[in-house]
């Protein structure tokens, strides 16, 4: 987990340069695959939640590809994301106190923050999102609300890394609220050139 935190910090430090390559009408489709972490935080206020997030002893990670997503650009910086994830929960309230599966499938509406603040850089392409998901933990499941943020960092016009972090809150007491963070490879495609021919074929 220390390596994951170092990688995320390093990506943030690369927020320099120009030429944002955000997903847009010229590259309307994107797919992503990578890893996710789940943290069932115990704190009820923001201060407790941040302490729990930064003190990552209770993060649950499945050491394999455990999250996939597909996105379609809509318009004016908005895109629709469909995502599914799988995890194994070994820490719920204390280390190694659990052993059960977690999975979720849902949809998020993402907004490219560059539409508000102007172009940043190809290394820091931020977004926020709101959505819902069906979450199953052990033998309990329910629909939950996703509120999150993240950023993409692009290696070229079509390939980059994507980081997302969300607070996931339910409408009943079936599944405890929790954090989900993910890091994955993202690939954009579907763009067309001036002649109208798909340039990614």
From TrEMBL:
Alphabetized, the UniProt keywords read:
Signal
Signal peptide, first to last residue: 1-22
Domain of life of the organism in this record?
Bacteria
Report the protein name in the record.
Outer membrane protein beta-barrel domain-containing protein
């Amino acid at each position: 987990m220390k390596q994951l935190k170092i990688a995320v910090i390093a990506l943030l430090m690369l927020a320099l340069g120009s030429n944002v390559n955000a997903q847009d009408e010229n590259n309307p489709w994107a797919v992503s695959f990578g890893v996710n972490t789940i943290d069932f935080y115990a704190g009820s206020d923001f201060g407790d939640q941040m302490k729990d997030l930064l003190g990552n002893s209770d993060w649950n990670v499945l050491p394999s590809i455990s999250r996939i997503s597909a996105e379609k650009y809509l318009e004016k910086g908005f895109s629709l994301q469909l995502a599914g994830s799988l995890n194994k929960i070994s820490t719920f309230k204390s280390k190694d106190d659990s052993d059960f599966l977690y999975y979720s499938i849902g949809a998020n509406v993402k907004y490219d923050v560059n539409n508000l603040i102007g172009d940043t850089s190809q290394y820091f392409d931020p977004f926020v999102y709101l959505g819902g998901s069906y979450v199953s933990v052990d033998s309990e499941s329910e629909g939950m609300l996703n509120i999150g943020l993240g950023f993409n960092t692009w290696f070229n016009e079509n390939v980059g890394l994507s980081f997302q972090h969300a607070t996931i809150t339910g409408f009943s007491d079936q599944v405890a609220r929790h954090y989900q963070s993910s890091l994955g490879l993202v690939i954009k495609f579907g763009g067309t050139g001036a002649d109208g021919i798909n340039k990614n074929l």
